[in-house]
Write a structure and sequence with these properties.
The protein is an alpha/beta fold. The protein is built from 14 helices and 13 strands. The protein has helices at about 20-35, 75-90, 100-115, 130-135, 145-150, 160-170, 195-200, 220-230, 250-255, 275-280, 295-300, 330-345, 350-360, 365-384; strands spanning about 10-15, 40-45, 60, 95-100, 125-130, 155-160, 180, 210-215, 240-245, 265-270, 280-285, 305-310, 325. Strands 3-2-1-4-5-6-7 form a seven-stranded parallel sheet, with helices on both faces. The chain has a six-stranded parallel sheet with strand order 10-9-8-11-12-13, sandwiched between helices.
Amino acid sequence: MSDSPTTGLRVGIVCYPTFGGSGVVATELGKALAMQGHEVHFITYNQPVRLGSFHPGVYYHEVEVSKYPLFEYPPYELVLTSKMVEVVQTHNLNLLHVHYAIPHASAAVNAKCILADAGLTVPVVTTLHGTDITLLGKDASFKPVITHAINASDVVTTVSQSLKDDTARLFEVSRDVEVVHNFVCPSHFERPPDLEFRSQLSPKGTPILCHVSNFRPVKRVLDVIDTFARVRAEREVTLLMVGDGPDRARAEARCRELDLAQDVVFLGKVKNPIEPLLISDLLLLPSETESFGLVALEAMAAGVPVVSSNVGGLSEVNVQEETGFLRDVGDVEGMAQDALAILDDGALRGFKQRAKARAAEFTIDRILPHYLDLYHRALDSSAS
């Protein structure tokens, strides 16, 4: 198993199966690998939302957590470790690619040790996505585990240069870390926008602003509403809020407080946020932190310019005054001014074209070869 294969790889991918960017990227990466003839095994507690019903060469292994009276909290990391060992042995996997430091990378490192005791060498590729570093990295109770998981992995990647810098700053990293940006799949955007839905949202054809997130405090959804209120005071616009989470009720209350409820549509969670993006004219993303900002890239691939905060990896995606604008966190007045500048009748088309062209630099066909190179590098290293 330590030999680098000359044909298709057998890869185990461990990720969160939810709507978040890390799960989306991991799922799309696995599907792209399968389309190139590799065999992909997803190992997680639920089927990834972007996986769909059936893809040749793609398999799903559910991690089941039994609740014993002894445990106040189910020991997910332990059963995940055991499931990885089982899948590697049963399906003769060549390597594990885990997304997120804990519990995925730490569980993979443990699985690697157990497999080594059985005479099997299986390298671990770890991709760090954001809050596993920027949020958990500030919690001293997690730091030793995350540090060990990073240093014990065979290959480590981050989704932005900003996140690589944060990793070096927050942890005692004794190894190289490579930047492999997130990506989009162009085929997902080769569909006509739902013009009937757009006309329902905006009967007069006025611009549609959009926000997509998990509505957690870090996304600053109240800033979205306050920015929209300033834009709405200058011209007719509609706001489409896509997603759900703890701050949704506060956002809805702010809309009522500012008498904007008739101009704001809360769509809730959708499996494919590309569909609402395709009918939008501008994305508002005022987050407190963003390791990369996958939704910004997806918006740009849909031809939607972005007004965002200037944090984390967003400046590596959103180019100031070309694909949109970047502002300090909390600068709702500035974001409103930028939104109005983009929505100017003479400017919008140019921003849309430049956004789409920029997104073309982050397509799966450009990123996948980089991951494959790292896979073979990990296999060659473990075989030597």
